[in-house]
Design brief:
Blueprint: H1 5-17, E1 33-40, H2 54-68, E2 71-79, E3 93-94, H3 106-131, H4 136-150, E4 160-164, E5 170-171, E6 174-175, H5 184-195, E7 207-211, H6 224-238, E8 242-244
Parallel strand pairs: 1-2, 1-4, 4-7, 7-8
Antiparallel strand pairs: 2-3, 5-6
Helix pairs in contact: 1-2, 1-3, 2-3, 5-6
């Protein structure tokens, strides 16, 4: 897997060119937060015509997310057919490295670290696309566990996660598009079916920022409310995450 130099350059240019986020969020001041990134490698993430253009959305949102959340590190998880067991892996990137000598400029080190984080995001996406599939739940569980295991005791506040995905759960055992979600009873049945034998993502207290949520153009407008309530039940009611969608 090779990182696209042009795309990484475009991502890093966001340092100067992007000042806003697609969601509203509280200013965390000077706190340092452990952050995570979930990237969707499914077929619906290749372009705006077929779904969420994940590469484009990374270019638009990753660096601003790191800035506004005051991320001290960035961990990664892919959305694949079986996200928990995916071989796509990358160690968390330290975004606030300590200077090793008195002559090193800390801001230069931080910008270099962000460049590395941007490159790693594309490596993760390219790997995920080779495995395809869309186990969103597994990816959220994996990133939450990674953040729990690697969070620095010196960081301030709960971790923050950026998930670039349309949230169309489509794995070998569960296809959200095939589930009736119109009524509360139907949604509860579908949620329990998805969670059967699987771990609920350990997102309690974390801020989850989504980009592309529900944006798959093949989804009928009349089914969006049920889709949204399905994920609200999982992410907010059960996992107790603080969810911020990109259209809010």
């Amino acid at each position: 897997m090779r990182t696209s130099a042009a795309l990484v350059a475009a991502l890093t240019l966001s340092l100067a060119g992007c000042s806003g986020m697609p969601w509203s969020s509280d200013d965390k001041g000077a706190e340092k937060v452990s952050c995570g990134l979930v990237v969707d490698g499914s077929g619906s993430g290749t372009s705006d015509d077929t779904g969420v253009d994940v590469k484009k959305k990374l270019q638009e949102t990753l660096i601003p997310f790191l800035d506004e959340q005051h991320c001290s590190s960035l961990a990664y998880a892919p959305v694949t057919a079986s996200s928990w067991n995916s071989s796509c892996r990358h160690s968390p990137v330290d975004l606030d490295p300590e200077p090793r000598t008195s002559t090193e400029d800390r801001e230069v080190l931080r910008q270099r670290a962000r460049n590395n984080a941007a490159g790693a995001s594309i490596e993760m996406l390219n790997c995920a696309r080779e495995q395809n599939g869309s186990d969103v739940l597994g990816a959220l569980g994996r990133i939450a566990q990674t953040l729990r295991e690697t969070q620095d005791d010196d960081t301030g506040g709960d971790p923050a996660v950026l998930a670039v995905s349309d949230f169309e759960q489509t794995d070998p055992e569960f296809r959200i598009s095939k589930e009736p979600l119109s009524t509360r009873a139907e949604r509860t049945k579908a949620v329990n079916k998805l969670l059967a034998g699987r771990k609920l993502p350990a997102l309690k207290g974390m801020d989850l920022y989504t980009v592309g949520y529900g944006k798959n153009p093949t989804r009928k407008p009349s089914t969006y409310e049920g889709f949204d309530q399905f994920w609200t039940d999982i992410l907010t009611t059960r996992a107790k995450a603080h969810v911020h969608h990109d259209d809010e």
